[in-house]
User: Fold this.
Amino acid sequence: MRILRAIFGHGSGRIGGLIVCVYLLLAILGLLGLTPHNPITQYRIDRLHAPGAAYWMGTDLFGRDVASRLMAGIGQSFTVAFFSVAFASLAGTILGLAAAWLGRRWDGVVMRIMDVLLAFPAILLALLIVTVAGPGTWTSVVAIGIVYTPIFTRVVRGPALSLKTREFVDAARTFGSSSRYIVTRHLLLNLVAPLTVQVTLALAWALLTEAGLSFLGLGTQPPAASLGLMLSDSRNLMETAPWLLIFPGLAIMISILGFNLLGDALRDILDPRMRRAFA
Amino acid sequence: MNYLLRRLATFPLVLLGVSILVFVAIRMVPGDSITAMLGTEAGLLTPAQRDSLAAYFGIDQPWFVQYWRWIGGILHGNFGISVTYGRPVLDVILERFPLTLELAVLSMIIALLVGMPAGIYAATHNEKPSDLGVRIIAMIGQSTPSFVLGLLIIYTLSAGFGVLPAMGEFAPLWQDPLRNLSQLILPAITLGFAFAASVTRIARSAMLDVLSDDYVRTARSKGASARSVIWRHALPNALIPVVTLSGIEFGYLLGGAVIVEQIYALPGLGRMVLDAILQRDYALVQGSVLFIAFNFMIVNLLVDLAYVALDPRIRLGEQ
Assistant:
């Protein structure tokens, strides 16, 4: 509760939180199919219909309702973003804690593997994984998850290493606490703040990467709707039907903006040392 | 010096990891390269023809022999033959690389020219409306995907001014500088926009940090002018985070900007890799990924070395 109040007391947190809430609502409605029209029904008589009362954001080349497709697409993008970030943060936390706690050889092996993954530009690595596994929603989840795992590993390992040498960990050891107890209680609980910030920011990147993959035709497959795919489809029609470009473009931009603002606010709130630096 | 040697010593290890990863990954892509290369015509090949093609590209061997040959070749400067282009992989890569390099340099120039002054301005006008304005624009910039911006630029130009970005045959810089620039300026702005936004944010926060330091206060109390405080005392120390960010971003851009190249139909490294993956051009994917990873590591090393140049107090390699 306190954190929610803090977010809404923070300038960018308020805006970011509001944006994220609205998108979550749209995503849920989109996933439940509670859209103004069926997102894949083709109203052929109304092809490339300009925005109006019947179709709020117009229709596309096949006469499908853009607003409904947008909602379905947001649902799709958010599903991929949430699951991939869940994957990356879980895998990264486990690897980072293992590297920090087990030390020397483990640390070396884990961090070298992460170095290898980090030597790839993110989108390239994602592309490679998607091509190997074949395009699709769950492939995107795994690909984006793997791409962002090294970042979480680093975010966890650094602080975990310094926490490990602190007195309270020594004290816990002296009291006879098990390794598992120390790692989950003393290390992990102290890492919740940096992880929360990282998760929020990672959601923004995940949305971006998902849209990029779909844009290249390697994410969500048609006829299912996805923001990247809608943008890609708009390319040849943007002069006759600019709404096909503008609405999905704005939708992607604002969703990323929402998570970035929220992430910034959380960083201010949870990490007072960084407050001014990243205000 | 020691640090440099130790860092260089990790290069082969990481590159070995990258080489294994990409070698295994590209072989897990369903389908084979000969079918991908010839399309429906592949069906017309006799088994003997197919075998001789496979032998020519060396893909008839077991995977470990292929890997061994590949690595051995690289040590002799031979990256193999691209199935799609029918030419040595390194030639194909080096033909595409100048465009990618130029695009990365142009984007960084734009980002620094816009981002640094904007960041310093915002920091020196902290909490004033102009600072807020800069921060809002930077936040929006950072949240705008390059493909959204690229498409919006193309749309604005074509719908508003009736012009299309210069496409067609790409003109290398040294052949036709003017035409080259006209082809690259919009992609560079597209990539540079978000980059500039990041630079603005990091420059602002670094500058704010430094401006509150004791030595800056001392300089001020000694009567140094505001200009001298900012440029002589504060800026050099505020540069380190900017260098880090720009370096990392530049390193990524050297890997090719797949989507922006796609939008502006530019023959850069990114699109080449994408096509190579889709065509299952094993040798080309492997070679280019290794090339990109190597560049990325070199850039990161240079960034680390730049720290020492900017701040003599930093001793690299110390924990």
About this structure: The mean pLDDT of chain B is 85.
